[in-house]
Amino acid sequence: MLSDTSAQDYQARDPDVRLMLQVRDGSAAAFEELVLRYQNRLIAVLEHLVQRREAEDLAQEVFLRVFRARKTYQPGAKFSTWLFTIANNVASNARRSLARRREVNVGSQSVSDSAGTPLDQMATAASGLMPTRQLDTAERAEIVHVAMQSLNERQRMALLLSKFEGMSYTEIGETMGLSTQAIKSLLSRARCNLRTILEPYMIEGVHPDGNGDE
User: Fold this and answer.
1) Can you list the domains of the chain with their CATH numbers?
2) pTM for the whole thing?
3) Cβ(98)–Cβ(49) under 8 Å?
């Protein structure tokens, strides 16, 4: 059980924890403020985990879970860590549901369809790109988005939390329920995979972690 001292530490250091404690005490304004602060950040992460059209719906589901959990909330971590733990669970559930739906149609797909993975699509696109052709911002964003889809779910989530939310290895581990060493390994493999896919584009300024190596 979380000690009173630890709870007080999080409350003192994290203004969002203080807002969530106000939500626990019945403040609708505090909840609205948290939604305002995190909605776009949540959607940005979720867009890389599920279909883009689903990201807003899942963000609403995350906030609904936060609201439902308000009365039992205890500050055992930074608010963002707690929030993205919920987001990770919601996204994982959504992906499992989608996978089950796809299984219904798997018998109608040919074996050759396995060549149409995002990784293979990226390799095909890369081979056809003229080196002298300048990519515009929208194209670069789409290339990175598709490349992200080639990562497995855990690699993708770890990389998103690292780059979008600036979380430490420890915070990502707390969010995903993994050890710090496991997170380091996930991020290393994710960056290596993205670098392989995006290498043909790097001359155009697209980097595997969005802004160059750390």
Assistant:
1) 4-97 (1.10.1740.10), 115-204 (1.10.10.10)
2) 0.69
3) no
